């Protein structure tokens, strides 16, 4: 596949990704927050994720600066990347939809917060992280560049390693035995495997 086409598909995917989030950010602004855990580490992790998934790929797509790190992939890899972007977008949207007012971009509990255990949350505790992982895989398949293609994995790996444990602890502190029982019957990231 033409590199311009695969780059364009990734950029369009990112645009749709951002559009999915906008209405939920508006809802989040209306929430009354009863507990928030927003240390400096949280801000740095979110920044690294933005750099890896948004800024570095945009630099690669809009300029020749990173072309020295290009690699070639077979056309089927680009096709697989397109399908994974679509799956990632669906899972990202569905995760937001199923969380509804419980969604937050940071570690916080809102007034009237409930534990989401339906929809995609029925089998997996963190489908939004799974959607980001899928996006990172698509990024590597669509952006044939060692820096731009793999930068998302770096940001995601750091975010996942530092944030998921804190998020689960906050939910355990808030929902106690209900969350513990939910943990026992679901997988953290990939249903039926991990």
TrEMBL record:
Record's signal peptide: none
GO molecular function, one term: protein C-terminal S-isoprenylcysteine carboxyl O-methyltransferase activity
Gene Ontology CC terms: membrane
Top-level lineage group: Bacteria
Membrane topology: Multi-pass membrane protein
Residue ranges of the TM segments: 6-24, 44-63, 75-93, 132-161
Major subcellular site: membrane
Key words of the record: Membrane, Transmembrane, Transmembrane helix
Pfam (any one): ICMT
Location of this chain's protein in the cell: Membrane
NCBIfam families (UniProt xref): isopcys_mtase
UniProt name for this protein: Isoprenylcysteine carboxylmethyltransferase family protein
Source organism (scientific name): Mojavia pulchra JT2-VF2
């Amino acid at each position: 596949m033409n590199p311009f086409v695969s780059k364009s598909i990734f950029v369009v995917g990112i645009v749709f990704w951002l559009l999915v989030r906008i209405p939920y950010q508006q809802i989040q602004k209306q929430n009354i927050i009863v507990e928030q855990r927003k240390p400096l580490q949280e801000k740095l992790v979110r920044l690294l994720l933005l750099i890896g998934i948004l800024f570095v790929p945009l630099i690669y797509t809009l300029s020749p600066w990173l072309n020295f790190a290009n690699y070639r992939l077979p056309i089927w890899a680009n096709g697989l990347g397109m399908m994974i972007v679509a799956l990632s977008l669906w899972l990202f949207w569905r995760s937001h939809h199923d969380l509804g007012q419980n969604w937050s971009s940071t570690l916080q509990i809102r007034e009237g917060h409930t534990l989401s255990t339906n929809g995609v949350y029925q089998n997996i505790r963190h489908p939004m992280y799974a959607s980001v992982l899928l996006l990172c895989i698509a990024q590597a398949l669509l952006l044939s560049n060692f820096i731009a293609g793999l930068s998302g994995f770096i940001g995601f790996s750091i975010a996942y390693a530092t944030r998921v444990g804190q998020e689960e602890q906050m939910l355990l502190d808030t929902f106690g035995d209900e969350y513990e029982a939910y943990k026992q019957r679901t997988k953290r990231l990939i249903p039926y495997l991990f």
